[in-house]
Amino acid sequence: MTQETNNIPYLIDSHCHLDHRYFAAKDGEADTIDMMLNRARMNNVRGFVTICCEITKFQEALDVANLYDDVWCSVGTHPHDAEKVEEKNYTVQDIIEFSKHRKVIGIGETGLDYFYKNSPIEDQKENFRKHIRVCQQTGLPLIVHTRDADEDTIQILREEQGNAPFSGVLHCFSSGRRLMEEAVEMGMYVSFSGIVTFNRSDELRAIAKDVPLDRLLVETDAPYLAPQAFRGKQNEPSYVTFTARKIAELKEMDEDKFYRQTTENFYRLFDKAQKD
Ligand SMILES: [Zn+2]
Ligand SMILES: [Zn+2]
């Protein structure tokens, strides 16, 4: 980073999906991921974590991360894919091996999704615990996806924290207050996406307002969940600014200060990410 940009507050999109299959170049255009990342950088979004959902496709996430200094990635199996035999076949040790790559800074996304229930609950729970074991052994943070599964999420996190400590983040938070409070008490972080800008999200905004400042992260979850201003369109990392603005407003704080705080939080949690 150059001298002039050093002091400008910037955001990090702590959770997006930059696989080429989502952002395929259309009509012979130049690489759209390239252009998209540049748009984000011009909006002072200067770091991106591209999240793996299936370990069989880990290489795709790693390929994108390898192309750019400011992109990192994760490795893990999404709860939607927990029942897939190929995913089940990866052991704790296998995931630990993948996680040794310098670009891998977190484990997931994984967790419980009882809204879609694309995989049986038992498979989801087993998959969730497998990834927690990896975090307990490597010290890497867990990236948790949880939807309509507050009680089981709390129970598994508590039980496993009792076995051995680990850090992590509840990504794209849209659950109830108790889950937020339990997670904070366990030392975990809470990340908000464009959902917090939706018209109907009053309850979520009330929760976001109460997350301690040093535990907040922001993300887009692009290409999904564009903020209210772009509702229904393809989401992209530069739009994380809308989420940041909204939460800064809820916290009644200066946007610059909010940028610095969440970025500091990011580097504290994802401590394998190198600041340049
Ligand atoms: Zn998710
Ligand atoms: Zn995601």
Secondary-structure blueprint of this entry?
Layout: E1 11-16, H1 32-42, E2 45-50, H2 58-67, E3 71-75, H3 85-88, H4 92-99, E4 104-113, H5 121-138, E5 142-147, H6 150-163, E6 168-170, H7 177-185, E7 189-192, H8 202-210, E8 216-218, H9 240-250, H10 255-269
Parallel strand pairs: 1-2, 2-3, 3-4, 4-5, 5-6, 6-7, 7-8
Helix pairs in contact: 4-5, 6-7
Bound molecules: zinc ion (ZN) (2 copies).
Count of β-strands? 8
Gap between N and C termini: 6 Å
Ligands and ions found = zinc ion
Q: How is the main sheet built?
A: 8 strands, parallel
Q: Pairing-aware structural class of the strands and helices?
A: alpha/beta
CATH superfamily: Metal-dependent hydrolases
Helix content: 25-40%
As for the CATH topology, it is TIM Barrel
Rough outline: globular
Mean pLDDT: 94
Radius of gyration from the CA trace? Answer: 17 Å
Q: Looking across the biggest beta sheet, what order are the strands in?
A: 1-2-3-4-5-6-7-8
Q: How many helices does DSSP assign?
A: 10
CATH class: Alpha Beta
Low-confidence stretches: none
CATH architecture: Alpha-Beta Barrel
- Into which percentage range does the β-strand content fall? 15-25%
Order of helices and strands: EHEHEHHEHEHEHEHEHH
Number of separate structural domains: 1
